Amino acid sequence: MPSQHGATHWAKKEAKKLARMSKGVVKDAIPGVIYDKGGSSSSSSPSLGDKPPVVADIDIPEVLQTGTLVTKISEKKKREVVFRIDPDEGTILYKSNKGGIVPIETIKELRIGANARYYREQFKLPEELEDRWITIIYIIDGTYKTLHFVAQTRDVFQLWSIALQKLYAIRQGLMNGLGNVDMRQTIWERQYWKGADEEGDQVLDFDDVERLCKRLNVSLPTPELKRLFNDLDTAGRGYLDFSQFQRFAKTLKRRPELEDIYSKICATNDGKFDEAAFVKFMTTYQKSKLTDPELHTLFEKYAGATSTGANEPAGILSLDGFSSFLLSPDNAAFSDQNMSIWQDMTAPISEYYISSSHNTYLVGHQLVGVSTIEGYIRALLHSCRSVELDIYDGDKEPMIYHGKTFTSKVSLRDICHALAKYAFVTSPYPVLISAEVHCGLEQQDKIVDIMIETLGDALVQAPVEERPKITALPSPEDLKNKFLLKAKNLYVVEQLASAQAARLAEKAAAEKPAVIEAVTSSSESSDNEAEVLLKEGVTDLKKAWKKMRSKGETKDGKEKHKTKMSFRLAALLVYTIGVKCHGINSDVEYAPEHMFSLSENAANRLLKASMQDLVKHTQTHLVRIYPKGTRVNSTNFEPNRYWAAGCQVVAINWQTFDRGYIINQAMFQRNGRSGYVRKPEALRCPEKDLLSKKTQHFLDVTIISAQQIPRLRDSKGQEIIEKSIVDPFVEVSLHIPDWSHSPFLPASATAAGAKYSPSTDATTTSVSSARTVSFRTKVVKDNGFNPIWQEELCLPFDCVGDMKEIIFVEFAVRQQGKDDDDDEPLGLYCVPLGCLEQGFRHLPLHDAQLTQHLFSTLFIQVNIRDIN
Q1: Considering the domain 256-331, what is its CATH architecture?
Q2: How do residues 277-287 score in pLDDT, each as one tens digit?
Q3: Of the chain's two ends, which shows fewer C-beta atoms within 10 Å, N or C?
Q4: Could you list the residue ranges forming a coiled coil in this record (predicted)?
């Protein structure tokens, strides 16, 4: 017997069916479909194949929608499971105690057939499974997950392969900014129609519509919703068909704030929105730099695309056309995001910021996380151009893991195969392999063998002896499709240390003869080595090395010198030779290829003591900054603190989705996502003295409205639909580097509600941060679907050298009562201030892992006001 609740639900469903049957013929509930009249209850509903109009290229075979039996594989077991696709909801579904739902938009990569070999071999499964194997990499609840399954036959595998790639490509296309308005609208209608139609009978009664409104965060009083429902149900049938649902959706999505802007523009132009009004709008409000012919073409595109026929005057932009333009890529908020032409890439590589990762092999906690090739693949496919290897002796071959921790291990060979395959898929520009080598001489040589075998001619190398002197670093263009190995060259490290010791000794001797006596007596060997090195110079490395080695041998020829480095490995270090930092003043001479790495603590000390010296050094040399070791939970600093000093390789923990990660991703959305961004002129051209230019400004942002604020998902990937509708507010924050002693923070700003937070260094319990100025709007009660604020915020900021591109503005839509900065926002958007276009703009909202929400936007007006 069913439970009382279950019986009630069943009776309710049957009552709905009978009510619909009693209405007789239901014609055109969905265009082209006629319901049968009378007969059994099953004949009163459309057949299973009848659906809303199908968009080209997203029709999925029926067998995949009903489900196919596949073998689901994990590290622990294999089991037979029915997998199916819901193309309307955009999900993959299977039975599981842990969820069994994979939203298509959460998928980060599909590995099909041989591309998933790494996992098949890891699970020690036979090769015969490979041509039916599918691996899905996705994010749920802030965590990367993998789903592996094997189809029963090749034919079923082909169906799954084609369908998944098709759905994934379409969703990814929609999640790359705005645009594709028609496709987006069609997918919206299919998704929410399907979600609301619980019975699957292709009609929505009032209960369905009320439940849909709750899911959409729409708060309408029941009487008002009932009136709207009845107005649409003109035949009094007690339900809405698909065309009526479309009209209902259009009513919900009405944008009075856009209508108001449109009306005001028309009112200033004799009541019409013609080309002259459009040009005035673009130049006055949008601060457009387009030429007159370009503006004409743009106007024609949107005036022509929305023509409704003979009743619409020619040469007039309709409200629909105006709305389409404001939501289009032609009106994108991020000026540099979708550039098809890269910046000039022919300058020395030291003139570019380089998208960089730290502990790339980890996909979890720094102490106990999993080491895998996934971290490398993920980073490379997102245009990361600097990856890290911590290499240790393995039983047979070198292994990668985090030393002195409980992290797992992965082989260097597997990682190099991943590098070879994925490094240049997204960007052709060079990949820097930053390695810490903890191996003995034998496995150092194996490192060389593996890298040459897997990376081939793409690996930059040069013999150490008779190597020509490098006077300047090559450009990213010169190094296209190349790998640069960066590791400490222990011989060069000793050379610099000995040369530095000699200089210090000479300086001490000149100032205090007594001091030099003590130094030489305690470090005679160092001074002897220094003398050799200073005589030979640091360029003839092999000759100097032989002399040092001969001094470090016993009579029987055995080595006693502490330096143990394969000369073959040294030959792979060409333009990125790792050295220790001995300061950056004029007393220390580094060759252009010498590159040192600084922990954030060391970098912070340099910033405070000699930021100008660091800027000067980075004009000709690469510097890498990495998170300090006490960040055991793999948190990040805010990288723009170090970009402001010219540091190029600022390494981020890509496995941690925090503010540092968000800022890093916002920066490298620029320049065609090539992983390289040209540094500001102030950091490249010392002769112009732009760093002495200090200015003050206001960022004036009007938060106008939001559209369909998303609901958070739970750990199983399902939307969290609470009893109440959200009460949203918007927080706007500026993250500003520490480039002046005091911030610009006028009293008027604090009185208006501006909140200022000074820069901080990391502690054992908190992350470091740049200066932050933030404002919050008022709260809109009970409306997560189309809240309107119309609230102006004025955020003050100072700037040096006009480097607005390394100030970052973050928009976060939050829920009242969950205003702790650590709480996950409902939606966010981050952009370099220098790339934020002015005027009326829609911002696509993302989740905390930077996955774009398909239907969620924030509508704002932007202006930057100069004070001096």
Answers
A1: Orthogonal Bundle (1.10)
A2: 999 999 999 99
A3: N
A4: none
